[in-house]
Structure formats: C-alpha cells, structure tokens
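A favour, since you know our structure tokens better than I do. What I am after is a single protein written out in full by you. Could you add the entry underneath, on a fresh line?


***
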Amino acid sequence: MKLTDIRRDYMLGGLRRKDLQDNPVQQFNIWLEQAIEANLTDPTAMTVATVDDRGQPYQRIVLLKTLDERGFVFYTNLGSRKAIHLKQNNRISLHFPWHPLERQVHVTGVAEKLTAAENFKYFTSRPKESQLAAIASKQSSRISARGILEGKFLELKKKFADGEIPVPSFWGGYRIKIESIEFWQGGANRLHDRFIYTRADEEQGWDIERLAP
C-alpha cells in the first residue's frame, strides 16, 4: 500500500464553541480525564519540542506530572539535551496526541525551573528504582554499552539499599507557563475543529478563536 493511500475519516463527533470551558486548564483537565477513562496508553505522555542554538528543533516524549493555573510540569535531568536548550532559549512547545479519541492538544509557552522544595517533594514520591535510574543515567550523553548503565544502577542500588536516596543536584522540574493552548478534534471530510486559547497578559481572561483546519 502506498503511504498516500493511508487515511481514515474522523467520525467521533465535532467540537463547538459552546462545548468549551472559558479556562483552557479546565478544558484540558476534562479532556485528560476522558483520555484516562478511555484507557488510552500513556494518556499523560506529551511530546516536548525545544530548539538548539542553531535553531534546530528537537522532540522527545516525557510524562506530564502536574497541571494547574500556573502551568504544565515535567521533570528531567538538568544536563540533558532539552535542559541545555531551555537554558539558551526557554520557549517550548508541548503536544498531546490522543489519536483513539481523534483529539490533539498543542501548548506553547515558556519554561521555568521549579524550586528545590518542589523537586524534593516529587523526587521522594517516586519509586526507589526510578530515583536510582535518575542518578545512574547521565541523560543524552554517549555511552559505549548498555552494561555500563546497568552496572551503575546496580552499584547505586547496593549503596542505598538501607538508606534514603538524596535528590541529585542535576535533576529537577520545569513548569511551562502557558501562552496558548489549541484543542483539535477530528471532523468528517477533513473539516476538523480547532480552537485556540490566548491572552495578552495575566490580568485579562482568555480569548478563544476558531482556526481553519
């Protein structure tokens, strides 16, 4: 089959302005809850896009850990490629691909580092194996063999077998301060429904506009 022949129609229903909450965080939470109830695989998975100092975009998938009126939160190694990019340019894009529901959500904003207290609270809530993996992996660095990574993990597991694991200084979270959120719902005959929330400043409410598909 040719790639150009692979297509499907979208029939799960449209999206109208009257269906939307005035606040995009509230609207997102409704859609996220529906994605969870639909038993989607990794409903909190989001593509994070950053750019390097040459303007080259990079994407990777991470998990959303918190969302409130202040923004979207994820955690990473602060020496990783994405963290280096954000240090140079903190503008960022997030994308949630909920294909079985024929939905997508696209977020733009700026990334701000979380406080040490926020990092500590989340890190200590993680399973011990996840804490060890965060320390064992120098994310985005080149390694010659998987055995090196596994050996470091086992070394740390033995070292902290009977004690608490300290929060590494090179690990932490980012909060994405929202500038825009677009909600996309598939429509029949490629007449998809798209609505974007934006606002000029924090003192104003959100503007909601329909976009052509």
Summary: The chain is about 25% helix and 30% strand. The longest strand covers residues 171-185. The chain has two domains: 3-124+168-211, 126-166. Strands lie at 45-51, 57-63, 66-68, 71-77, 91-98, 103-113, 171-185, 193-198, 207-211.
